[in-house]
Amino acid sequence: MKLAGTGVGRSPRIRIVNIMMHNEQNGLHTPADGEGKFELSPVEMLIVLAKYKKLILGFPVAVAALAAAVSFALPVEYKATATLLPPQQSQSSAVALLSQLGGIAGAAAGAAGLKNPNDLYVGMLKSRTIADKLIARFNLKRVYDIESMDKVRLRLDKESDFNSGKDGLITIEVEDRDPQRVAQIANAYVEELLALTGELAVTEASQRRLFFQKQLEKAKDNLAKAEIKLKSALDTKGVVSVDIQSRAMIETVGKLRAQISLKEIELNSMRAFVTENNQDFRRTQEELNSFRAELSRLENGQGDGASRNDVAKSNSGLENIKILRDVKYYEMLYELLAKQYEAARLDESKDSPVVQVLDKAVVPVERDKPKRTIIVLLAGVFGGVLAVAWAFISESKKRVSRTTTGAAQLAELRSYLRFKKAQKKS
After folding, report:
1. Rounded distance, CA 350 to CA 6, Å?
2. How many CB atoms lie within 10 A of CB 146?
3. Phi and psi, residue 11, nearest 5°
């Protein structure tokens, strides 16, 4: 018998009312509010599990088998680990000097202010400088089959992991599909870090060494240019004899100029670490003023008038004397800077941080990924949970559909889930 008023096209709520009226007319039971709710006792739950035992047991097995097949299709990856022992963080002379003076010494103070000093070396390992060297060294563009340099860096960063543990050690972990290459990349990280710490000025002594190294190279270039200029002048104008007094004056002036330049360089280097009220800074400033006063006295002609008149008899001779004076100046400056540079190198060797290799990376024998056992177990557990849920949902649907209200509600739900609007029957 067809239920009147339940044609397609009417709203779901009207259909529910029609169903209830139809049930009353035909003597069917319509549950009251709260009746027909899906509530299961523990025994009923066990009954449901027993009823769907084939699904609950078979589905997880099928899912686990599928996961096992997929895990065997995944590419195999190996992991290599290298362990570093960073320098022990004791209070160096540079840090003690900074604490007394209250100044901040650039990178040295920044490193001293880190909560974990090992983070400095971890940051260096993650730097673009080391990444680019490894990409070029192992031709990772071809290995990863990626042309973009930025994407290759991201891939290398994804395959690499750096950790600073509570034990004070730094671990470098690298993953790759080639066991030989993965060990080589991990050890290359160590090599590049050691090279980078040698190039960068991490401590105050390293910064002074780098500063004097640049000044020494500049003085060396200037000395070479002055010598070439002197040789050219002598070849063009010939050799001019200089008396002993004039030569002594030239050497004295050159030495004074070199001392002045050296003190200025020292003051510039000290400004990065101390204040102008520092005792060493003030003493160096007084020495600089003294040298400048002495040079001014000599250049103003006091005590060397007779010799200067003798030398100035020839314009060409005076020109050669000026060039010779420049040569002497750069010679003196180079010698003084070389002494300062060697002293800074000695300080750096005493205070320089030495990163030691505790464990080198070795070629792995066992694969690291995929972890097939874990994949299969997780898939089986997920399949079991899904099967149990499916069983209870199916049982709930069957019990709800046995009541008129539940059947009407299911019909209403299906109508709302439809995307295509049904046409009315004629």
Report:
1. 96
2. 17
3. -70, 155
The 8-class DSSP code of residue 35 comes to: T
CA distances for 383 relative to 71, 372, 373, angstroms? 16, 16, 15
Q: Are residues 154 and 212 in the same domain?
A: no
Which strands form 170-176's sheet, in the order they lie side by side?
160-164, 170-176, 78-85, 356-359
| Whether the predicted pLDDT of 379 surpasses 70 | yes
DSSP string, 297-326: HHHTTTT-HHHHHHHTTSHHHHHHHHHHHH
On whether residue 104 sits in a domain, the answer given is: yes
Q: 66 to each of 53, 60, 69, 223, 366, how far by Cα in Å?
A: 20, 10, 5, 77, 24
The answer to the question of residue 138 being in a domain is yes
In the predicted model, what is the mean pLDDT of residues 138-167? 92
Q: Which of 290, 323, 350 is the last residue of a domain?
A: 350
Coil vs helix vs strand at 83: strand
**Is the residue at 312 inside a domain?**
yes
Are 211 and 267 contained in the same domain? yes
Question: Which alpha helices (DSSP H) does 160-200 contain, by range?
Answer: 179-199
SS3 218: helix
pLDDT confidence of residue 286: 83
196 and 226 part of one domain: no
Residue 70 belongs to some domain of the structure = no
Report how far residue 48's alpha carbon sits from residue 397's, in angstroms, rounded to the nearest whole number: 13
Structure tokens belonging to residue 147 = 């042309």
81 and 195: one domain?
Answer: yes
Which one of 314, 331, 350 terminates a domain? 350
Q: Which residue has better confidence, 34 or 354?
A: 354
Hey, what amino acid is at 179? P
Q: What is the pTM of this model?
A: 0.50
Residue 41, φ and ψ in degrees, nearest 5: -80, 165
Q: What is the domain extent for residue 276?
A: 205-350
Q: Rounded distance, CA 161 to CA 81, Å? A: 10
Chain centroid to CA 173: how far? 14
Q: Looking up tokens 């909560």, which residue turns up?
A: 115
